[in-house]
Amino acid sequence: MLVNKSLDIPYQQLPFDGQFNVAQLGMFRNELTDQPHRHDHFQIIWFTKGKGRHMVDFVWYDVEDNMIFLLRPGQVHQLDCEREGYFLSFTEQFYFTNKHDKETLYDFTTLFDNWHGYGPISVGSSTTASLQGLVDLMSREKNYAPNCSRGIVKHYLNAFLLLTEREKKRNITETMMPLTHDARVVHLRRLLEQHYHCEHQVAFYANAFALTPKRLNEITKDGTGRTVTELLHDRIVLESKRNLAFSHKSVKEICYELGFEDPAYFSRFFKNNTGISPQDFRDMMFK
């Protein structure tokens, strides 16, 4: 079971100074690293060697050698493993400093949009040396004080992200049934992230695409294997779990914050989707 005696889950700030960091996993340990915590920035964890498990948003994943986990701001995670490798952390402001960057640099947010569902990325042997070389280059440039170039680091990071995306696509091709890639699915994911706490009707999201709910469901089903309602419910349940496990908010407060008017209905919704009541889930987390 997850244990967090403080109840309020902390946000772990960027290590060291600045909006970018790269370091070996073994060098970054404190009282939070092996406890459930979350970050207010993007993070890439590359296990060059690993044995054990890694929890991301209440789901445990087995850790293997040459495996990458991508974490968005706000995702809860916990390490329970032997590990060697690297972590890279950066803010969106670091990567996109101006409009020109938006137009010329890779939009990494698509890489972190898990429109196929969340999962670690296994890195092929042919890509390992390239990623290692880029990590070495980023580390060398970052430590080239006081003459470190943000632009050089960003371009090394850009190359790292592109290689990671290619590995992610290879993983999906090898391990999952073929699904249609549609940019509208990525955009839908972003709309859900923005409005899940107040908009619970498929019609709202369909109107954003000038589509009928039925047609948007068809597109979403082809792209993810799930309907709009299923994706929406998944996101609401995830946020409910985060709040139940790591905040002092009452079930009623969580209910209202997530756009439900009736706490009893919210409790039924949560139990229908998880098999357990909100209060029982909270109690279970702190046994």
Automatic annotation (TrEMBL):
Record's InterPro entries? AraC-bd, Homeodomain-like_sf, HTH-like, HTH_AraC, RmlC-like_jellyroll, Tscrpt_reg_AraC-type_HTH
SUPFAM superfamilies annotated for this entry? Answer: Homeodomain-like (SSF46689), Regulatory protein AraC (SSF51215)
Domain of life (superkingdom): Bacteria
Q: What is the lineage of its organism?
A: Bacteria, Pseudomonadati, Bacteroidota, Chitinophagia, Chitinophagales
Query: Which Pfam families does the annotation name?
Result: AraC_binding (PF02311), HTH_18 (PF12833)
Per its record, how is this protein called by name?
Helix-turn-helix domain-containing protein
Residues in HTH araC/xylS-type domain copies: 186-284
Keywords in alphabetical order, please. DNA-binding, Transcription, Transcription regulation
Q: Which residues form a coiled coil?
A: none
